[in-house]
Amino acid sequence: MDSQNKNLIIATVLSALVLIGWTYFFPPEPAAPTDGAPVAEQTATPAAPAATPEAVAGAVLDAATAAAQASDANAPRIKIDTPALTGTISLLGGRFDDLSLKKYKETLDADSPLVRLLAPVGGTDLGAAKPYYTVYGWSPAGGLDPALVPGPKTLWTAPADAVLTPETPVTLSWDNGAGLRFTRTISVDDNYLFTVAQGVENNTAAPVRLAPYGIIARHGIPQSNRVYVLHEGAVRMTDSTLEEIKYKNLTKLDAVAGEGQAELTSASQNGWIGFTDKYWMTTLIPNDGAFTSVVKYTPGADLYQAETRLPVMEVAPGASVVAQTRLFAGAKEWEVIKRYQDDAGITRFVDSIDWGWFFFLTKPMFRLLHWLHGAIGNMGWAIMCLTLIIKALVFPLARKSYISMAKMKELQPEMEAMKERTKGNPQQMQQEMMALYKREKVNPAAGCLPVLLQIPIFFSLYKVIYVTIELYHAPFIGWIRDLSAPDPSSILNLFGLLPFATPEPGSMFFMFSLGVLPILLGVSMWFQQKLNPAPTDPSQAMIFAWMPWVFMFMLGSFASGLVLYWITNNTITFIQQYTIMSMHGKRPELFDNIKAGFRKKKPALEKPKK
Length: 610
Hints:
The protein has helices at 3-25, 63-66, 247-250, 334-343, 359-376, 379-393, 395-410, 412-421, 426-440, 448-467, 516-529, 538-555, 560-583, 590-599; strands at residues 77-81, 85-90, 95-105, 114-118, 132-141, 163-164, 170-175, 180-188, 193-202, 208-219, 233-238, 241-246, 262-268, 271-276, 280-286, 291-298, 303-309, 313-315, 320-331. It is α+β, with helices and mostly antiparallel strands. It has two domains: 57-220 and 228-348, Beta-galactosidase, Chain A, domain 5; 378-599, no CATH class. It is elongated and about 105 Å long. Its main location: membrane. This is Membrane protein insertase YidC. It is a multi-pass membrane protein.
């Protein structure tokens, strides 16, 4: 077996491993869950964190015991109505537990429900959502009785017919009957940022010590396809250091002695903490100053918690204090999050979007794509323009590659003669070949550089298309109504001409349900391949013949936006290669190569230059 065959086999095996690995780590999007039954057994209430360092033993409420007494099903509520959000706040515990996003629907159907971010414990209208909510409170210290501070079972009061809007903040109040009056003033902006000011007024004759806290509680994790390319779980910023903890890793943390809860704690001067999904996020953001962030898992209740614990405050007799924190609950829209980072001073908030290892590519790539989308008004055309710009940037390398390929074709007869002359002496053949390359100033590896450069670009664009919400339900043309989802058309029903449904994403037969875009992808790769004559070796020719169609099936279930990029990239590459090789006297005999492939004859070589 000669060295070319060996290299081909190695390359084929490596390509297969890459494809298998890609399919494993980056599977296609699963079908939307249809089981809307509420999860009745997940009704635990999060434990209120004890104030540190002066905690009392009874301050930490038992999660399982408090569940039945803290159900929100029949609690009075305050309506939330903003341009971006709709929902309610429960006066039982003063918790944020009912929140939907006005700008986003679950599906493209006209009657599709809004995306629901937060859902209450014990609610009867949970849909597919599991209990997911945010609570605030105070932990007693210095001997203060836990019953004298508000907790998950506290029933707050509010003005009659109060509605929380960007123009009308709402103040909740609770008097403990022993000289302490607690207030909670809640305001919200036009997007997704709440401000919560917790106040306490001491009308007793002695000072009191207590510490404010905030908790995001999630009962179970959302139904989705956990993939390696995307982080879902806890995310926090601690002193400008980002930390991401997946749900499965939370369950593996060492249990805290005596509590039976997995916990990870970090002190911070500036930062935030919360839970992030693919497109949505809920985050606690204390104002500047020291605080402790905690992520915790309670196995018995399948309860995930993210907490902020502020330092103990002392309130003198006749005095009052206010602790202000912020809550982000909404979609991870880049412009909105960037504004919160720049204008509201939330440290590195844009890094709550999972930019990945190639962040130095994904960030500028997304910003350019975002600008193109704003200028053009269609994300599909923006992707095509971005591809054109990327190809223009790497064109100098591509040009050298195609010139080198043209020169290699010129040397092909001489190399074949050299192989015949040095048959049986591979060392001599290698020496003569290297001398030939040096004499003719040809670099055989020049064709690999653009390919190697394109690998991180491809991964980065995949990351941008997969994780950024700007492609969520973004239409292109005709039947492509969601560039973040696979092409919905299918060859199995002749692209809608036959009256039957096709396999859904996630089905083992879905990869055979090729749409128009995947087929165009395979055709574009096939045309690009036909720029060069097929290898004379039958095994090589067979492998090359199958390669476009293998990629067509492998990439066919990917997001339409990514397939669109790949089609555009192939088309531009075809034009560049054809033009450059023609300019250097080696015009590809495209149609002769196609005919030779169909006739199963030796591929036609280029016609001699006239």
